[in-house]
Amino acid sequence: MSRNTLSRRGFASAALSTAALRSANDRIHIGIIGAGGRGTFNLGEIEKCKDLNAAVTAVCDVYRPSRERAAARVAQSFGARPKELVDYREMLASREVDAVVICAPDSAHSKMLEDAVKAGKDAYCEKPMGVEFAEARSAYLAVKASDRVVQIGTQRRSEGAYIATARLVQSGALGKVTRIDMAVNFQEPRWRRDFTQVLREDVAWDEFLFNRPKRPYDARRLREWQLFRDYTNGIAGLWMCHYIDLVHWFLEDPYPAGAVANGGVYLWQDGRETSDVFHALLDYPKGFLASFAMSLTNAAGGRNLWHGTRGTLDCERWTLTGDGARGPDRIEEARKIEPAPSVSHMRNFLECVRSRRTPNADIQAGFSHAVAGCMAAQALETGRKTRFDRVRLEII
Predict the structure, then answer these.
(1) Predicted pLDDT of residue 4
(2) Are the CB atoms for 238 and 263 separated by under 8 Å?
(3) What does the DSSP 8-state code read for residue 318?
(4) Are 128 and 109 in contact (CB under 8 A)?
(5) Does residue 272 contact residue 265 with C-beta atoms inside 8 Å?
(6) What's the rounded Cα separation, in Å, for the pair 331 and 150?
(7) What does the longest C-alpha to C-alpha distance in the chain come to?
């Protein structure tokens, strides 16, 4: 059977098998796509949710050692060895999988998510939701047209401190917010990994390349894909997505109006194609400017400051103060932000698989940060300001 036939027939039958709502007594059968670092982390999160009658029943990875390690762990944790796959489309065609957790390289997220919902699977998709705008838009529209539960992996939306802060900002406690200043700094060649022990015979190379340009086998690209533009849009997708997601959430403004960016490889001259220093400025229709900067060249620490007419919110120290305000409604007494009750991001997803409710980081949240990331990445590559038409859903 060809892959196209597998996709058409298998996806259709899979969609029929998962159409009915599950009762609490029905086990949620989960497939993991990508069993590397992030896939292993999410496997651990699923293990913590056994009380929800959820189990991993299939594992897919293009690298045999990762696939086999994950399968062995699943067998020990859930009492049965999962199906081991190389092509994720076989997982989507299976009636034995109800939901998938997508942890493949960033360039695969949008296409795999779109295929998953079209196959009738609920999906937890790691961030960023997309790195190429056309693919992200297509996945967004596919999810919106479906009845599938989709959680995007911007897990701060399930963390109590951020939940409490979102409510605080939305209550007007800061007044009108006009500027957000966010920065992350390391002094390390981040995303380097050892690839010297990777054997060609252990890698399904064509499946790894997937929807990206064909090229000869390269173990470094498999292990250090974050450094190459074929598989990521750089810091905009790898890191900024977490921070810009807070902007969309707290201020309830889903898309930037425009973006500019600058940066480059200034220190780690190791063949990487993605920046080690990056700075983006994004302005929004509600009237505020968001700044995000990141460097891998100096460990200057982090910054997450929200400047409003009534004071300043510090999301590193979790404080709300009157600093910087001069008006009569200035915040008089500083306060510490106490976390709201919360559950893990994975538990929230699995609970919503049962209830069919909207999870904390839904497809709109994912598409919003994908739009911002694609705008910033395009601005960096072209040296020109990008704009977004939120009616036509197009980057200009």
Answers:
(1) 47
(2) no
(3) T
(4) yes
(5) yes
(6) 39
(7) 72
pLDDT in tens, 348-377: 999 999 999 999 999 999 999 999 999 999
254 vs 192: CA distance, rounded Å: 33
DSSP letter string, 167-192: HHHHTTTT-SEEEEEEEEE-BS-TT-
Alpha-carbon span 231 to 213, nearest angstrom: 10
| The CA-based dihedral angle spanning residues 200, 124, 169, 379, taken in that order and rounded to the nearest 10 degrees | 40
pTM summary value? 0.94
Q: Which 3 state secondary structure label does DSSP give 2?
A: coil
Distance (Å, whole) CA 106 – CA 87: 17
Residue 165, number of CB atoms within 10 A of its CB: 24
Instruction: Please say whether the beta carbons of 261 and 376 come within 8 A.
Output: yes
Helix, strand, coil percentages, rounded to 5, for the chain? 40, 20, 40
Please write down the HEC assignment for all residues of 49-104. Answer: CHHHCEEEEEEECCEHHHHHHHHHHHHHHHCCCCEEECCHHHHHCCCCCCEEEECC
For the record, the structure tokens of 396 come out as 């200009």
pLDDT at res. 19: 42
Give Cα 118 distance to the centre of its chain: 20
